[in-house]
Structures are given as structure tokens and as C-alpha cells.
Write a structure and sequence with these properties.
This protein has a 7-stranded parallel beta sheet with strand order 3-2-1-4-5-6-7, with helices on both faces. The N and C termini lie far apart (about 35 Å). The mean pLDDT is about 90. With about 240 residues, it is an alpha/beta fold.
């Protein structure tokens, strides 16, 4: 059987699709020939992005999620990148619940709303976790708890939906250069401690995650289901 990495012609929906990681994955799918819908809470760009149907969506808004799902005719891949981290402020209950709502409840809401379309196409879900799915952090209790739960949700939905022909997997990015990690620029000692643990000796770029996302969405990954793959330059192994 030939190995098939082709995702051309697939319809892909990416939440958080105007962020660093989501934007890079969206661009990679477009380059690979997919039809891409990118949702985000941020405004739609004044200059349209080539090959991307940009829309505004808060994944915590159940009615908006339902309306989006009902407005689609087909979906092959759902990539869940919507997220937020608010260091220290997550110890406040309202902020804790907000972050959990985006990462965990929002991911569940999107996946269940789009399940019929994914079942019809034999599609797949890709949830974006984090190295904090496995490591603790005293600064972001909600983000860490939500990302750990996303890994478990990935396993659960993979088992529950396998009979529908839906695969559910995840990736766990390491230290990536995005707006979320810009604070490290002002903390050279902390940055050095992080970089010294990464075997490559440097932070990664968002585009470096895209290959794993494309692979997991392709027919070549047909036997991969219920796993979250660390894409962290070896950080979790050191």
C-alpha cells in the first residue's frame, strides 16, 4: 500500500487560526492544497489571507458554535488551536474559568458540534495541547490543567468515535516563538534556563509544528488514533 500524505482538497477548520501556531498551521494546509476556514476571537484581517476563509468565533459561545457547524456542508479536519494563558491572574476564579472554557469546554463543544460532518467524511480532529499537559507550572494553573485535560479528552473521543471513522489526536508544542512567549524577551535568565534544556539550544518557530499537523490529518496516519505527540525539540526528553 503506497504511503499517502496528500491533504489536497480537504476542508479544514482551525480555531485560533489567526494566532501564531494556528496561523502557521492554516498557511501550511493552504500550501498543501486544502480549503481552510480559520476562526478566532480577533477581527477578520482587513487584507484577506490567500486561501483562508477567516471568521470570528468565540469557542465558548455554544450558540455560535452550533450556527457555524450548521452552516458547513463538509468538514474533513478540525484543528483546535484556540487558547489563552494569563500568568498569575489564573488564580482568580473568573480568569481560571475563562481559560478552562476556551481550552477544554470550547474544544469539546466544537468537536461534538462538528462530529456529524467529520463522521460523514471519515475525518479527524487534532487538539493542540502543550508541554504543560505533562509538566506543572506555578504561573498558569488553569492553562496547565486545561492542557492536561485536553490530552485525556483526545483519548476519550478517539475511543468513543472510532466506530464513526473519526480519528482524534493531538500535538503538544514545546517552547514556540509566539505572542504567548514574548515575555521571555524581558527575562533573560528564565529564557536561558529554558533554552539550556532544549537539545537544539533554541526556541522553535510556529511553522515547525505544521508538518506534524499535516501528517496526522493525512491518510498516512490512518492507524494513529488517541495519541498526543510532543513536538518540542526534545524538551520533554531532557
Amino acid at each position: 500500500m503506497p504511503v499517502d500524505f496528500d491533504v489536497s482538497g480537504k476542508t479544514v477548520l482551525i480555531t485560533g487560526g489567526r494566532g501564531g501556531i494556528g496561523g502557521a498551521i492554516a498557511a501550511a494546509f493552504v500550501k498543501a492544497g486544502a480549503q481552510v476556514i480559520a476562526t478566532d476571537v480577533s477581527p477578520v484581517p482587513a487584507e484577506p489571507r490567500k486561501g483562508i476563509d477567516d471568521r470570528v468565533l468565540d469557542v465558548r459561545d455554544a450558540d455560535a458554535v452550533t450556527a457555524l457547524a450548521e452552516g458547513l456542508d463538509r468538514l474533513d479536519v478540525l484543528v483546535q488551536c484556540a487558547g489563552r494563558a494569563v500568568p498569575m491572574e489564573e488564580y482568580e476564579l473568573a480568569t481560571f474559568e475563562e481559560v478552562i472554557g476556551i481550552h477544554l469546554t470550547g474544544s469539546f463543544s466544537m468537536a461534538t458540534a462538528l462530529r456529524p460532518l467529520l463522521a460523514a467524511s471519515g475525518g479527524s480532529v487534532l487538539n493542540v495541547g502543550s508541554m504543560y499537559s505533562y509538566f506543572g507550572s506555578p504561573l498558569v494553573p488553569a492553562y496547565g490543567a486545561a492542557k492536561a485535560a485536553v490530552v485525556q479528552l483526545t483519548k476519550t473521543l478517539a475511543l468513543a468515535w472510532a466506530a464513526d471513522g473519526i480519528r482524534v489526536n493531538g500535538i503538544a508544542p514545546g517552547w514556540i516563538r509566539t505572542a504567548m512567549t514574548q515575555s521571555l524577551d524581558a527575562l533573560p535568565e528564565a529564557a536561558q534556563a529554558i533554552v539550556s534544556r532544549i537539545p537544539s539550544g533554541q526556541l522553535s518557530e510556529p511553522e515547525e509544528l505544521a508538518g506534524t499537523a499535516l501528517f496526522l490529518a493525512s491518510p498516512a496516519a490512518r492507524l494513529i488514533n488517541g495519541v498526543t505527540i510532543p513536538v518540542d525539540g526534545g524538551y520533554s526528553a531532557s
